[in-house]
UniProtKB/TrEMBL annotation:
<dbReference type="InterPro" id="IPR001091">
    <property type="entry name" value="RM_Methyltransferase"/>
</dbReference>
<dbReference type="InterPro" id="IPR017985">
    <property type="entry name" value="MeTrfase_CN4_CS"/>
</dbReference>
<dbReference type="GO" id="GO:0015667">
    <property type="term" value="F:site-specific DNA-methyltransferase (cytosine-N4-specific) activity"/>
</dbReference>
<feature type="domain" description="DNA methylase N-4/N-6">
    <location>
        <begin position="18"/>
        <end position="72"/>
    </location>
</feature>
<comment type="similarity">
    <text>Belongs to the N(4)/N(6)-methyltransferase family. N(4) subfamily.</text>
</comment>
<dbReference type="Pfam" id="PF01555">
    <property type="entry name" value="N6_N4_Mtase"/>
</dbReference>
<dbReference type="InterPro" id="IPR002941">
    <property type="entry name" value="DNA_methylase_N4/N6"/>
</dbReference>
<keyword id="KW-0949">S-adenosyl-L-methionine</keyword>
<dbReference type="GO" id="GO:0009307">
    <property type="term" value="P:DNA restriction-modification system"/>
</dbReference>
<protein>
    <recommendedName>
        <fullName>Methyltransferase</fullName>
        <ecNumber>2.1.1.-</ecNumber>
    </recommendedName>
</protein>
<keyword id="KW-0808">Transferase</keyword>
<dbReference type="GO" id="GO:0032259">
    <property type="term" value="P:methylation"/>
</dbReference>
<keyword id="KW-0489">Methyltransferase</keyword>
<dbReference type="GO" id="GO:0003677">
    <property type="term" value="F:DNA binding"/>
</dbReference>
<keyword id="KW-0238">DNA-binding</keyword>
<dbReference type="InterPro" id="IPR029063">
    <property type="entry name" value="SAM-dependent_MTases_sf"/>
</dbReference>
<dbReference type="GO" id="GO:0008170">
    <property type="term" value="F:N-methyltransferase activity"/>
</dbReference>
Length: 369
């Protein structure tokens, strides 16, 4: 029985929506795969965890999820879903920040024009306080509050902190300012603490999800997987399902498209090309192949003899060809099958694909012979 289909009648379902992220797995799909290929207590590994959909599905179904994500936005969403703080501590922290937001009022004037078109002064001083006070890497209360703030940082003008914007992708400042001016759109006049309190009421209405002992690491899988493989081997443990979706070649810039949420986590107040090439757009064929080879090779060291490898990727030629090449090279002993989905329903690439005709994903699955 899956828990993530249907209405919001459980905590697991309510928390599964944290948070908006490009190229995410539909939650019910991730859960179906976990239930089909694993049993209670099995380990599931996702080295490109994104917002942690696979790991969360594993954790609420008594499997052990192990995720790695290089983008702090995805990481903080995953962390909050796997291990959320109780409502009262998040509420107390929210109120404490609200009481102190006046301290950051002067700082709002120093922000680039984009911010003053996007948020009212009240909201911006509140956000600046959260940005500076929340210890989201280490404190459970703070990663929970931060992740829920990020969910609402931008989106529909009537249901977010921001002036009208997309929810999954941050717009470029010149484009957004021009659009707001042309359409005479002003930032919404909201009390940020009351706004968040309502959002907390909705999220916690059915309590917190019950999750098993799972973990998501912030960092580069090429490095992290080595440590994980050593740890598992020392404990004679292994992974039953490698379930992941790598970045798609040439499709999205994982840094630029999230620049506003990354700013909230301490980044620059404008979209900028990341220093680290792994965080940007994957366009170079050879570099892309090397990333996949390094990650899948290292991941293979954690797998049980009868493990299944399930990879969802872009169905377009370049990404698919490279992915299959790499999987064949790393797992020559497994039997490969692929299934292409051209369904009219929303796909992971909807936001970024250039042509509607190219929409769709391919699932490449490798089974023991
Ligand atoms: C297609 S998305 C995965 C989405 C995920 N399935 C979900 O449901 O949210 C690919 C992810 O891989 C991450 N990534 C890219 N290179 C990485 C690396 N070297 N180590 C860890 N994560 C990486 C990107 O930041 C991005 O979040």
């Amino acid at each position: 029985m899956t828990t993530l289909t249907g209405r919001y009648s459980t905590a697991e379902k309510r928390w599964s929506g944290v948070g908006p992220y490009y190229a995410m797995f539909p939650s019910s799909f991730a859960e179906q795969i976990i239930l089909k290929y694993t049993s209670v207590g099995d380990r599931v590994l996702d080295p490109f965890a994104g917002r942690g959909t696979s790991i969360y599905s594993a954790a609420i179904n008594q499997r052990i999820g192990i995720g790695i994500e290089i983008n702090p936005v995805g990481w903080v969403y995953s962390k909050a879903k796997l291990n959320p703080a109780g409502k009262s501590s998040v509420q107390n922290r929210l109120e404490e920040i609200g009481r102190n937001a006046f301290r950051y009022r002067r700082a709002t004037a120093e922000m680039p024009p984009f911010f003053r078109h996007c948020y009212t002064e009240d909201v911006l001083s509140f956000l600046l306080t959260c940005r500076s006070w929340l210890n989201w890497r280490q404190s459970k209360t703070d990663w929970t509050l931060m992740s829920l703030l990020l969910v609402h940082l931008h989106g529909k003008r009537t249901d977010s902190f921001s002036n009208q914007m997309r929810q999954a992708k941050s717009m470029s400042p010149p484009y957004a300012i021009r659009w707001w001016k042309e359409n005479n759109q002003q930032p919404p006049q909201i009390d940020p603490v009351k706004f968040m309190q309502k959002k907390l009421d909705w999220r916690y209405k059915r309590g917190c999800p019950v999750t098993s002992n799972s973990e998501v690491y912030l960092g580069n899988s090429i490095v992290r997987l080595g440590h994980i493989a050593k740890k598992l081997s020392a404990a004679s443990e292994n992974v039953k399902l490698l379930f992941t979706s790598p970045p798609y070649c040439g499709v999205t810039d994982y840094h630029y498209d999230q620049w506003l949420r990354l700013w909230m986590l301490g980044g620059e107040p404008s979209p900028s090309a990341p220093q680290d090439s792994l965080r940007g757009k994957f366009i170079d064929r050879e570099k892309y192949k090397k990333l996949l080879l390094d990650v899948f090779r290292n991941a293979s060291r954690t797998l049980a003899d009868d493990a299944i490898v399930y990879v969802r990727t872009d169905r377009r030629k370049l990404t698919l060809e490279i992915t299959k090449e790499v999987l064949q090279e790393v797992f020559p002993h497994l039997r490969m099958r692929s299934y292409t989905r051209l369904s009219p329903e929303k796909t992971q690439t909807d936001l970024f694909a250039n042509l509607p005709a190219e929409r769709g994903e391919t699932d490449v699955v490798l089974y023991p012979r």
